[in-house]
Amino acid sequence: MTHDNYDGSFFGRRKGKPLSPKRLGLMSTHLPRLRLCLETPAPADLSALFDADVGEVWLEVGFGGGEHLLHRARENPHVGIIGVEPFVDSMGKAVAAIVENAIPNIRLFDDDAIRVLDWLPPASIDLAYQLYPDPWPKKRHWKRRFINTENLDRYARALKPGAEFRFASDIDTYVDWTLQHCRDHPGFAWSAETSTDWLTPWANWPGTRYEAKALREGRAPRYLTFRRV
User: Fold this and answer.
1) Whole-angstrom Cα distance, residue 40 to residue 91?
2) Residue 100: C-alpha distances to residues 23, 59, 109 (Å)
3) Which of 75, 65, 100 is nearest to 83 (CA)?
4) What is the torsion angle, in degrees rounded to the nearest 10, for the CA atoms of residue 8, residue 9, residue 12 and residue 14?
5) pLDDT score, position 4
6) Angle, vertex CA 82, rays to CA 146 and CA 137, nearest 5
7) What pLDDT does residue 11 have?
8) Is 111 a known ligand-binding residue?
9) Cβ burial, residue 149 (10 Å; 0-12/13-18/19+)
10) Quick check: 8 pLDDT over 80?
11) 134 is catalytic
12) How far apart are CA 47 and CA 34, in angstroms?
């Protein structure tokens, strides 16, 4: 995702190429139904958000092209997944796929993920993903990275005890940054026991377009898993 403007706590470009008339129509018709309404309090039981009968609720912050979000939703029909993505093109693709494939266990939010994390009830999320976020590689921009003490506090509040927070990146400085911040945070413990643990994707990993680009350009992805303690 390309980010170049600051908007509250989110740095980012929200629009790219214009949506096709078909996707624009799907967005207009279906995003209001799929979008979380943060103007009302979150239900105590988040399963009430979904049309499907779900037993767990997962969160993916910044789902990009939606490959992982859609794959996990199809693979786990009894899990409700909240996907957050402010980039309009990506949201348009996700809405189209959800509608065309009649996927009942996804809810969406097209704005700042901090708003969702603050809206969620405490200890309500069973698993959270943040995959290939903008790394802000220049040191003077590191303060813009989403992984920081304040946002880890938000994740820790929303995750159930024992739940996992999964993070992937191909940028070494952001991997190191995330390791340091999560290991320093009292709410998280890094679960890796050997070096292969963070070189190996999670089970049934579908890959993402960002990962494919990294591999083409010779960068090695890292997969970090932290447990909410």
Assistant:
1) 22
2) 11, 22, 19
3) 65
4) -60
5) 34
6) 20
7) 46
8) no
9) exposed
10) no
11) yes
12) 14
Per the structure block, which two tokens stand in for 167?
Answer: 């993070």
Q: Is 107 annotated as a binding residue?
A: no
Residue entry with tokens 């969702």 = 116
Residues in CB range of 111: below 8 A, 6 or more apart = 10, 84, 86
Q: Are 60 and 129 in contact (CB under 8 A)?
A: yes
pTM score, two decimals?
A: 0.91
For residue 108, give Cα distances in angstroms to 62, 83, 113, 201, 212. Answer: 11, 5, 11, 25, 24
> What are the residues facing 7 on neighbouring strands?
10
Rounded to an integer, what distance in angstroms lies between the CA atom of residue 137 and that of residue 171? Answer: 8
Residue 15 has pLDDT above 90, yes or no: no
Question: Which domains are seen in the chain, by residue range?
Answer: 6-228 (3.40.50.150)
Q: Which residues pair with 222 in a beta bridge?
A: 169
160 labeled part of a ligand binding site: no
Look up residue 94 and give its DSSP letter: H
Residue 138 counted as an annotated binding residue: yes
Catalytic residue among 89, 110, 126, 134: 134
Inter-residue contact 84 to 63 (CB < 8 Å): yes
75 is in an annotated binding site: no
Q: Which residues pair with 131 in a beta bridge?
A: 168
Residue 93 is labelled as binding a ligand: no
In angstroms, the CA 192 to CA 169 distance is 16
pLDDT tens string 67-116: 999 999 999 999 999 999 999 999 999 999 999 999 999 999 999 999 99
Mean pLDDT over each residue of the chain, to the nearest integer = 92
The rounded distance, in Å, linking the Cα atoms of 143 and 136 is: 9
